[in-house]
Design brief:
By secondary structure, the chain is of the alpha+beta class. It is about 45% helix and about 20% strand.
Length: about 280
């Protein structure tokens, strides 16, 4: 979102877009209700919301360890012995990936309990916890301090790494989708071009983003820079598209999502050529 928040293009884009900030799961709801034309949505929404079209070019994905999607459980417990998981509901797609993985870990009946993202409280109520986003990054930062405080050894599974180990494909979390008028020919290409250009400018300004966001949250500039540059993959390339297709196949086989034919040719266009 670099160009939408920073000069010289922020004012031009503000004349063409009205931006509302919310979780990706809420973006999906807005698209489903017709309250929004474009949204960054969890990929699981594609299987449950008719009429979404993936805008080419941009994604939030990981091709290895992501650090911001964690399954944490008490030491001494095996994955197939867990009976309950307290789950941060911030990302429907992450929970879908987790359910697929539990099927692969021979534990398809594990219960998921929705809870706010508080690791200590989650582990008091359940055998394991799924924490997502900033709380996950902070949990890793506080790992040593928590052990000193509690004396309890915890096991931290990176869900993107677990998926990659299973499939050798990227863990794709979210994509930009459009509905209605935003799907019409030249306008769709123009929108995709705006987001691809903004993505590229953001990648050129990771140091500035790390400095900016270290003032807004309890994470160091170094941690944020490493996360943005090493853990997140931003280009919706062929490998990511294949990862999405594998996700939908595995989700349907496990009964996590309804069957969904992710037709790459008709649902995702070609990334617009950059003029910048």
């Amino acid at each position: 979102m670099w160009d939408f928040e920073h000069p010289p293009l922020d004012k031009e884009l503000a004349s063409r877009y009205t931006i509302d900030w919310m979780l990706p799961s809420e973006c999906a709801d807005k698209l489903a209700s017709g309250a929004a034309d474009i949204g960054l949505v969890p990929i699981a929404a594609l299987a449950t919301i008719p009429g979404l079209r993936v805008l080419p070019g941009c994604t939030i994905a990981s091709k290895g360890r992501v650090r911001s999607l964690l399954l944490v459980h008490h030491g001494g417990q095996s994955l197939d012995s867990l009976r309950s998981v307290a789950a941060d509901t911030a990302s429907r797609t992450t929970l879908a990936y987790a359910r697929i993985l539990f099927h692969k870990w021979a534990n398809p009946g594990v219960a998921f309990l929705p809870m706010a993202a508080d690791l200590d409280a989650m582990l008091e109520r359940a055998d394991a916890a799924i924490v997502i986003g900033d709380p996950a990054l902070m949990a890793l930062e506080e790992r040593a301090n928590r052990y000193e405080r509690s004396g309890e050894e915890l096991v931290y599974h990176d869900l993107a790494k677990e998926w990659h180990t299973l499939t050798r494909l990227p863990f794709v979390s979210a994509v930009w989708c459009a509905t209605g008028i935003a799907r019409s020919g030249p306008l769709e290409e123009s929108i995709s071009g705006d987001f691809v250009r903004s993505r590229d400018h953001g990648l050129q300004n990771i140091d500035a983003l790390a400095a900016e966001w270290s003032q807004r949250m309890a994470l160091s500039e170094q941690t944020i820079r490493s996360y943005l540059s090493s853990n997140i993959h931003y280009v919706l390339d062929e490998e990511c598209l294949e990862g999405m297709r594998r996700f939908f196949r595995e989700a349907a086989d496990a009964g996590v999502l309804p069957p969904y034919d992710f037709d790459l040719a008709s649902q995702v266009g070609r990334e617009p050529a950059s003029k910048w």
